[in-house]
Amino acid sequence: MSDNDEKHRTRSAPVALGALAGVLAGGAALAVSELVAGVVRPQAGPVVAVGGAVIDRTPAAVKDWAIRHFGTHDKLVLQLGILAVLTVFALLLGMAASRFRRAAAGGVLLFGVAGVAAATSRPDTAGVVDALPSAAGAVAGAALLYTLAGRLTPRGPTPAEDGAPSTAPSWDRRGFVITATAAAAASAGAVALGRSLGASQGRGAVASRREVVLPAPASPAAPVPKGAQLRIAGVSAFTTPNSAFYRVDTALVVPKVDATTWRLRIHGKGVTRPLTLTYDDLLRRELVERDITLTCVSNEVGGPYVGNARWIGVRLADLLAECGVRPPSAGGPADQLVARSVDGMTIGSPVEDLMDGRDALLALGMNGEPLPFDHGFPVRMVVPGLYGFVSACKWIKDIELTTFDAYDPYWVKRGWARRAPVKTQSRIDTPKPFARPKAGTVMVAGVAWAQHRGIDKVEIRVDDGPWQEARLAAEDTVDTWRQWSFPWQATPGGHTLTVRATDRTGAVQTDRRTRTIPDGADGRHSVVVTVD
User: Rounded to an integer, what distance in angstroms lies between the CA atom of residue 390 and that of residue 386?
Assistant: First the structure.
């Protein structure tokens, strides 16, 4: 090796190791943050806090694009993206640290400031205490980067074997290795301990859910009609299992609320008798059980964000009436109910719809068990006929009666509609797009929904042919989806199958395609198949 090669290798080593130092410092910052967040609360961690801030500030169209492309994995993609960005900046800061040691360490502190700002500005912030994870992590990361960069700083010439001074600078290889190894080990331990502490915070909530025994409802749901579930492969189950039920919300960390300490406050405009209820208070009330299909407004035509479950809960209209609330049609001053979640989400629902006789519920159970945490334990709202963003508040803690003119909830502030009844829609479940069925009789089947109105008819069209009526499965209630089937005499070649539904009001599903924003997608679902 030539002298020039040796000099180049010696000069480049600290730069490459500087990048490693940056990654280690970034990892240490996140590890310490997670450890402190495990003590404070998981939602205060910088990745979660910054992720929540990003969600709050993301344009509706971008958020809708993310749900459309990543589905229920959109939150994981966001957090991985944040970690990727932090890694790149950590690499750059580490490379700069070999020459600008203090400035690079200061850069780590700036990221801490961003984390503090995000954590303390969230709607569900616990105040100054939420700043601790980001602040502690930033200090730890900056100190580690400063220390590692010091190990990479040349300390003068190293004597050669013949006693002559070497021209290559000397840096503390042994000290760097020891410090880096210790930091990596400590970071791993901090992450493990932080996650254990974070999990322990939710143990009370888990225990409280485990101890819940749902009473028999005073008004049980009727048995699902035998003909409601078609025996056709590929058709969605009439009752969606809890594990398969869609989840679309903004919570990067699923709230785990202890039912024994949970409280719900009902107050606001037109409330003459404010109420504060416990979970046990609701269990002692008259419970009703209903099959209700929920639909997310982000569901594209033919999309998966719709599901049917058997819910048990308390009629919301009864509670509101007990508080003295009257709907606008009866002279009530409030036309909007704003539900607030423990994570800061606000959802506005029309008071008139909640009190018009439909089974709007404060739900406690789902498919025979207490609500899963992912779906709102201990209590959530379920309102047939309204999209979730204007009705289905999960982890609810507060109900305020107000007006649409006085307050814009979370989604309205981001360009979505104030009122959003579910649109009449249908979906082809089988055959799947680009399937290759054999010529002959092919069963085309799927589901249709128009909650609170009911499905009256479903029709199928092959290519540009006439509309042909499908066979409807038995109806459970007007608040549930309805399965349908059509025996298609398939001929060889490529074909387009299109479906449309007609609801009980006589409204036919439109062929005009619209986006999900601002009040739900419109259009007809179609699939292209090739018959062999």
Answer: 7
What pTM did the predictor assign?
0.87
The pLDDT tens digits for 153-180 are 876 665 555 555 555 557 888 999 999 9
Taking a C-beta distance cutoff of 8 angstroms, is the pair 58, 34 a contact?
no
Q: Distance between CA atoms of 428 and 437, rounded to whole angstroms? A: 15
Tokens of 170: 């000397």
Q: Which helix (H) or strand (E) holds 80?
A: helix 74-97
| CB atoms inside a 10 Å sphere around CB 125 | 18
Asked if 426 contacts 509 with a C-beta cutoff of 8 angstroms, the reply is yes
Residue with token string 């009902």: 266
Q: By three-state DSSP, how is residue 54 classified?
A: helix
Each residue's pLDDT tens digit, 241-280: 999 999 999 999 999 999 999 999 999 999 999 999 999 9
107 φ/ψ angles, rounded to the nearest 5 degrees: -65, -40
CA dist 192 to 14, 145, 314, 508, Å?
Answer: 30, 22, 41, 56
- Cβ–Cβ under 8 Å, residues 366 and 373: no
Which among 125, 140, 139, 136 has a CA at the least distance from the CA of 44?
125
Closest CA relative to residue 515, chosen from 174, 199, 59: 59
**Cα-Cα-Cα-Cα dihedral sign, residues 391, 367, 309, 256:** positive
Pairing of strands 288-295, 471-472: unpaired
Q: What is d(CA 444, CA 234) in angstroms, rounded to the nearest whole number?
A: 10
CA angle (189, 191, 195) in 5-degree steps: 120
* Lookup result for tokens 């992912």: 374
Gyration radius of the chain's alpha carbons: 29
